[in-house]
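From the pipeline queue, job 12 of 40. The input is one protein chain; the requested action is below.

Action: predict structure.
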Amino acid sequence: MGIGYFNKDKTPDFFVSFAQGTWPDLSWTKQAMIDGATGKIEFSDSLGYYQTSSPIAVDFNEDGVDEVLLNVDYQVLDSIGLKSFYNTLLVISFETKEVVTLVEGIPGHNVASTPWAGDLDNDGFLDIVYSVGTNQFKTYTFDGLRVNYIGTKIPMTPKHQWGAYMGSEYDGVFKKK
């Protein structure tokens, strides 16, 4: 779950991403954004193949409204039906109702690694770090890991409140603005 200000009111909102099925037959993931003020589901989708990484909240376009950054797996079938898995980062804007691919698919699968957003190099701009398992032919494997870095020119003021697993302070506490 990720917490942020996904609309223009002053009440924090919630974004959840969860697998559907019964273990070990978990195949697809569903997502929903719940308006914190009304309790209504304002966004619902099924993006990608099974993974349990948490979403984070970042104001990418600096308009005072957070977007969700979500690590998503998807599968591709070749001409003889062999599955390959790829991983990408998606940005979801609830203001524009857009889902935008931040990076092209990387071969591999991410079961449970949440992206991180903050100022890694202390230059005042947003950095994103995320990881992907390197085995593109099997899920639920941990036989290789690729750590990826994205540097941006998005200013880090104010600090993002939910830029990591369980929030930017890693304590599961969301501090209202």
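Job complete. The first strand starts at residue 2 and ends at 4.
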